[in-house]
Amino acid sequence: MFGNTNTTNKPWGTIEENGVGKFNDFTDRALEELKSMGVTHIWYTRVPHHCVISDYTQYGISNDDPDVVKGRAGSPYAVKDYYNVNPDLAADPAKRLEEFEALIKRTHKHGMKVIIDIVPNHVARNYQSISKPEGLVDFGENDDTSAEYKRDNNFYYIPGKAFKVPESLGGYKPLGGEEHPLADGKFKENPAKWTGNGARKAQPHFYDWYETIKVNYGVRPDGSYDFETLPEGFDKKNYETHYPGLFIKK
Which of 6, 37, 170, 228 is the most buried (most CB within 10 A)? Predict the structure, then answer.
């Protein structure tokens, strides 16, 4: 990542060994030089807080299980908390959101706009938001887990079966075989949930997105919809037709 000058590049290396770029590495000077090259937008990626193998328990963040985290830095598609940012990218993990907000302000100050990517289709198996707004509950907290599908459930379930970690292929071992208190070939999830790519087995395949679980947007298991769909041909209409009331002609 931008700002990391460490060239160790050790397989399965830790942050301390391999280093990692930080939000603060995008200094005023760096941003001004990017602007001078004609850059108009910067895409900051891996920003949402996804599962990582770093111990941030002193900041109130639970540890993530290597059995359902791909790599040590984790997959940016396995979001753990939609309401905060990746602590690996902060100089001070306790102020990670403030550091990212400051980066946005710096970017705007230098005349550029910001793009970040989010993942709405699935979340980490270990989704646990500690930053959600007051009054909200976590995904799945109020789900009826006795049913494979219900319209108001957040996830899809495999009732009566507990999740099993996939059988590894090609000699893969979490953390390269390094000992870790949570790396035991198990992850507690009962009943099992559908995997992020739609796999419906309690033990997904190693090549499935087994580190994630699929979010339910009202699509029934048979593919039909639990919501009204747009009239035929509406996909050919312009944006003003799709968003009535938002565009006022003067």
Answer: 6
Rounded Cα distance between 181 and 243, Å, is 51
For residue 191, cis peptide bond before it (omega within 30 degrees of 0): yes
Whole-prediction pTM: 0.90
Distance CA 138, CA 124 (A): 12
For 214-240, the pLDDT digits (tens) are 999 999 999 999 998 888 998 898 888
Round to whole Å and give the CA distance between 174 and 35: 41
Overall domain count for the chain: 1
CB 146 within 8 A of CB 152: no
The verdict on residue 188 lying in a domain is yes
Residue 166: other Cβ atoms inside 10 A? 21
Domain of 32, in residue numbers: 15-125+144-214
